[in-house]
Amino acid sequence: MALPFIEIIESTTPDPNLLMWKHPHPDAEIKNGAQLVVRESQAVLFLTEGTVADVLGPGRYALSTQNIPVVSRLKGWRYGFESPFKADVYFFNTSQFVNNKWGTPAPVIIRDPELGSLRVRAFGNFDVRIGDPVTFFREYATAYPHLTIGELERSLRDHIAPAFGEVLVQQRVPLIDLAGSMSALSETVGPLIVPYMARLGVQLTSFVVTSVTLPDEVSAHLDKMTQMAMVTDMDRFAQFSAAQAVGTAGTGMQQAAVSGAMSALMAQQMQAAPAPAPAVGNDVVARLGTLKQTFGAGLMDEAEYKARREAILDGI
After folding, report:
1. What is the C-alpha separation between 294 and 250, in angstroms, rounded?
2. DSSP character string of 1-42
3. Nearest to 149 by CA among 13, 20, 12
4. pLDDT digit string (tens) for 237-264?
5. Which residue in 44, 50, 2, 39 sits closest to 22, CA to CA?
6. What is the pTM of this model?
7. Cβ distance 30 to 87 under 8 Å?
């Protein structure tokens, strides 16, 4: 039975996520002078007896000894140089694969000068393409009949995460400044992973750190510090904190405790305040104003407000 001959070798990319796929021609022989069509963003690799024979870029080729070196390097021809030959043909997608995701599988421990040791996670994306089909095939893809970007992405993530952790620890960027350091981190981490990808025949075209996240308890603490920094007046801060506590207190006992704490704070402020000027009227007005603000914040009921007001007025 005569073996089938392959006269045209071409392939549109069957899946945009494919990095490499083998041309399906089991037991078929390539006819001498057969046409090879390699499209833009493709490369073709010929493999014979387990050895890479040649790689061809975009174009149309007649596979013969006159113009294609691959033919003259093939081994084991049974019928001479004008006869058909056998070879495995692999297509490569050399276009750019964008928006691949990476992240730290475990938190990275850093030392912040203000907050001490913290656990942070980071996330981002990167773009790659096959830079050297021969190296990619030999170092990574040899065992696969086809290979997707998802499989390569998972392998690269395992190398990116440790590189990011190393940079984050060495840079010693304060936590509060991380949001403004994303670009600098991206520019520092990217070059560290380029040599590793190059050893696989992969070219890194872009690397971005998009976010660094903190544990929930640390985020809550930072929110509280921000709120405190916004308050410059102790009376306003006390009213603000007490109002928050009243808003979350679910029982009358909690409200009473907050009211008592406010009263104690007001008493301490009054004791610590410098002696008032001889103008007694100004002191009374100030005390009445503070009392009214406390009542307005809901920290005492109307009866208590009236009683304290009367006490201030009686002291004149």
Report:
1. 20
2. -PPPEEEEE----S-TTEEEEE---TT-EEEEEEEEEE-TTE
3. 20
4. 566 566 655 555 444 554 554 455 455 5
5. 44
6. 0.62
7. yes
